[in-house]
Amino acid sequence: MAALPHCSIAAVDNDPVLLAIGRPICPRSIEFIDTDVTHEGWADRAGIRADTLDAVVTSATLHYLSPLRLAHLYALLATRLRRGGLLLNADRLADADPDVNSAMERARAGHQAREIASSDPDWAAWWRAVADEPRFDRLLAERGRRGLTGTTHRVTRQAHQRLLQQSGFSTSGVVWSRGDDQILVAIR
């Protein structure tokens, strides 16, 4: 934030638990927006106007969207990003080639085994620890009411790239990967 003193950052999520955890640990200048990006008009209600964003960063979230919802979100973000703006999607991205996909899954399994051996909690263990904290009871109930234990869609990297191109992004590619954990960047 010190390197970009005039930038504004918004954290957009529909998960009340994650928003509650993020608010006190992030700089106060970050605006937290509780909204569902699959609902029509969310960006307008959040005050995100056309051609105003320099970058959008997602992390471990777009795999919850079906290809149709993903296409709608990419199309909307293409209208909100300035020309030359970046979309970075950090997520587990499958590959269209089953052999490559299998190799990526083996690499992930090996990495997870090393994490378990080092006692780093996995995502399920992290959520169990959150559930053990009484201060999150109300937020977990709200999370359940919102149905946020959703289905994971294994949309391939190639399908993401096709949807991005169809939505108005000029190019896209992987800028980092470890197995199927990848960062896909798209340029408007």
Structural write-up:
There is one protein chain. This protein is α/β, with parallel strands linked by helices. The chain has one domain (10-187): Vaccinia Virus protein VP39 (Rossmann fold, 3-Layer(aba) Sandwich). The protein is built from 7 helices and 6 strands; from the N terminus they run βαβαβαβααααββ. The protein has helices at 16-25, 42-45, 67-80, 98-117, 123-131, 137-145, 157-166; strands spanning 10-13, 31-34, 53-59, 81-92, 171-178, 181-187. The strands form 2 sheets. Strands 3-4-6-5 form a 4-stranded mixed beta sheet. A two-stranded parallel ribbon has the order 1-2. Helix 3 (67-80) crosses helix 7. The mean pLDDT is 91.
Topology at a glance:
Elements: E1 10-13, H1 16-25, E2 31-34, H2 42-45, E3 53-59, H3 67-80, E4 81-92, H4 98-117, H5 123-131, H6 137-145, H7 157-166, E5 171-178, E6 181-187
Parallel strand pairs: 1-2, 3-4
Antiparallel strand pairs: 4-6, 5-6
Helix pairs in contact: 3-7
Q: How many structural domains? A: 1
Number of helices: 7
CATH topology: Rossmann fold
Shape: globular
What class would the helix/strand composition place it in?
A: alpha/beta
Key phrases:
188 residues, alpha/beta, Rossmann fold, two-stranded parallel ribbon, 7 helices, 6 strands, 22% strand, globular
Question: In a few lines, what is going on in this structure?
Answer:
With 188 residues, the chain is an alpha/beta fold. Helices cover 40% and strands 22% of the residues. The chain has a single domain, classed as Rossmann fold, CATH 3.40.50.
